[in-house]
Amino acid sequence: MCGIVGYVGAKQALEVVVSGLRRLEYRGYDSAGVAVVSDSVLVTRKRAGKLVNLESLLGAEPLPESTTGIGHTRWATHGVPNDANAHPHVDCSGRIAVIHNGIIENFAELRAELSAGGHSLDSDTDTEVAAHLLEEAVERAGGSLADAMRAVCARLEGAFTLVAIDSRSPDLVVGARRNSPLVVGVGDGEMFMASDVAAFIEYTRDALELGQDQVIELRADSVLVTDFAGNPVEVRAFRVDWDASAAEKGGYDLFMLKEIAEQPKAVADTLLGRIGPNGELRLDLGLPEEALRDIDKVVITACGTAYHAGMIAKYAIEHWTRIPCEVELASEFRYRDPILGRRTLVIAISQSGETMDTLMAVRYAREQGARVLAICNTNGSTIPRESDAVLYTHAGPEVAVASTKAFTTQVVAVYLVGLYLAQVRGDKFGDEVRAIIRELADMPRKVDIVLDTVEPVRELARQLKDATSVLFIGRHVGFPVALEGALKLKELAYMHAEGFAAGELKHGPIALLEPGTPVVVIVPSPLGRSVIHDKIVSNIQEVRARGALTIVIAEEGDESVEAWADHLIRVPVCPTLLQPLVATIPLQVLACELATAKGHDVDQPRNLAKSVTVE
Ligand code: F6R
């Protein structure tokens, strides 16, 4: 939440900063602003609304040339999204500009103290206190912005990334981080600081991963990182494994459409290099096999779509390993006193690796002695760094706020963990594991088939444009798929949508049905677990008998549903546990098309932001 960019080098800072903001806009789009230092004068421009508003302002009121600058795109926490609350915030003297991501929890008392001390605060934000505290601290620090930043950080409570520039140190950008993301980009005679590598990927792929409670001094040819006490600290260098084109729309109208289409490759990339020549799994989890054999409980924790991936994984992990598996919303996890111990494996799933709720769950689990394995898509992010082990999904950058390829790859990655556990522990015979892996390895092809056949879903979406409520039902792994379908529709089409375990309908929710209410039904394979299949076919009949418009997702060749489906969406034949990888795709397309038909901004839905870095 909130995107932050800082630049110092030889280029025009404004161009670098605005192009960085364009790539970070998915993190928040309530307002945007920039500041540069030119001829020892600080100049800012900021505007409520999307980046395009700031760009118009910059067209009307250009900034002077400068090679040092910062920029911010906001997801509002304190104060409505207006011009005054937009970042950067500036101190009374107009010397220091600061941008912020996170929440300064003790801002009210700091604000009262600053006001009593004669400072004039012009916004309703928590951030502005940092600008005025820096103003005072820089005087005390003999003019050193970095010393001032360390002193200010020591006074702040909560989560923050702060990045500041000072008109009296025109060649310096200073950043600080606690519990909020910040990475450094290392160029040739230029340096970058940003919430996410996407901001500087068109200039450099060399990056530095920062730790907690660190202050960064960025000059065109040097980076100095210290702790809050001023002691220099080592940071890990890494190379970003994707390039600028991966974060472009690449000919698609929407990032979401591009990311939906990328799923066959993303799923293949999650599997890449992880299957040995004899079909066995080769995972370098960084956890000793002895520890894996010792596990007596798995707890999966995540938020939103990642939580749905975790719900799906529970079915597979328990089925394959017979280890009890719980799935817990990360936002609830540490508040309910969960039972964790040395033999518990906690799997934290997060695309961004920065979701604050999930990060807090990770920390709590480790404090309780559990081992934490992160499943993550973002190299250099906080959750993998703070976990005992990590398995990257390698889905490539996901820019659309609504998660698509991250979800399918999370399911694959957590399945790999489940199968690996079964392999290491001997819960399944080698040939059984290999057979499932063969099926998994065939999924990119099957996802591709779904993508080739979803055109009728687009047409259906246009027909549903005026529906007031859409229900999704499924059983077994189809239940989390139903929840995911409903979530996508809520966040993109702003429609009332709910997902239910199909068997629960008759215990209450069936009262919601009115003639014509669309009900999307996820039907598992009739092969193998045919009991679930037969039960859900009965559920379709129940809702249809009450006037529902039935939209049925069923396997190719499953004739049993034909009589009850007003709309039938076919997916390739696959085992029930793998069906979410194909059944979710039409639901993503449905939500995307419905939102488009309603004229909504699909990539940047209202009130949302990708990477939720506040609790
Ligand atoms: C929904 C969506 C969110 C995220 C959730 C967790 O489409 O994208 O529900 O899944 O905020 O985010 P990560 O995976 O980054 O922890």
What would your notes on this structure say?
- α9 runs parallel beside α13.
- The longest helix is centred in the last third of the chain and has 21 residues.
- The model has no long low-confidence stretch (mean pLDDT 95).
- This protein has three domains: 244 residues, Glutamine Phosphoribosylpyrophosphate, subunit 1, domain 1, CATH 3.60.20; 191 residues, Glucose-6-phosphate isomerase like protein, domain 1 (Rossmann fold, 3-Layer(aba) Sandwich); 153 residues, Glucose-6-phosphate isomerase like protein, domain 1 (Rossmann fold, 3-Layer(aba) Sandwich).
- The chain is α/β, with parallel strands linked by helices.
- It has 19 helices and 24 strands.
- α12 links the parallel β18 and β19.
- An eight-stranded antiparallel beta sheet has the order 3-2-4-1-10-9-11-14, covered by helices on one side.
- The protein binds fructose -6-phosphate.
Distinctive features:
alpha/beta; Rossmann fold; binds fructose -6-phosphate; 24 strands; 8-stranded antiparallel beta sheet; Glutamine Phosphoribosylpyrophosphate, subunit 1, domain 1; 615 residues
